[in-house]
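Show me any protein, keeping tokens residue-aligned.
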Amino acid sequence: MTEEELVAREHVRAFLKEELSTVDRAERDAAHEAFDHYFVIGPRIGLNENPIDLIEEVAAAAEYSAGSYDAAKKIAADLLKKGKPLPGRLSGFVARVLEGETERPQPEKKVRRDTDLRNEILAYAVWLLERAGIPPTKATESDKECGCDIVADIYDSLLAHDTEGVILKPKGGEFSRARMRDIWLKDEEILEWRKWQSTLPDCLL
């Protein structure tokens, strides 16, 4: 590993130790709101050369994401204050809220053990390593380390040395490299996050 990659690895270890011991859903929801709001009021973007109606995207996610719900309300209020019409999906969202048909999404009961928040933290750690030049995944036969393997190993090490019991624990108490790769490559929420993360300007990274 290069010196930059070693520094990134230590940074990721410190990041995971801090984030996995202080998981706060309210804080994450607020971050999601800010994230969604930026994409609506910021510069227009497109993925794969296809234009995206960002307001519609946020309004659609508001049905299941508390952060997007908060962002959709704020966006609707901003448009109404300026005397501008609400786009179709956002208009429907506002109508359902006013009629009491749609409420702010609540996290599922603790059966989920905040798994979605953990996955976001782990995926962000893999992304940090990728920015330092470490690929997220590798070919099965390769002996080189990849971001998913490094993050999985660090997480497992943190769990093994968590004498105070503060690190967010996975089901079964252990975490595998295969599980991390599945999160990075197959988890729908993480795939969506990765798509949007790739559009952020450097000043927000």
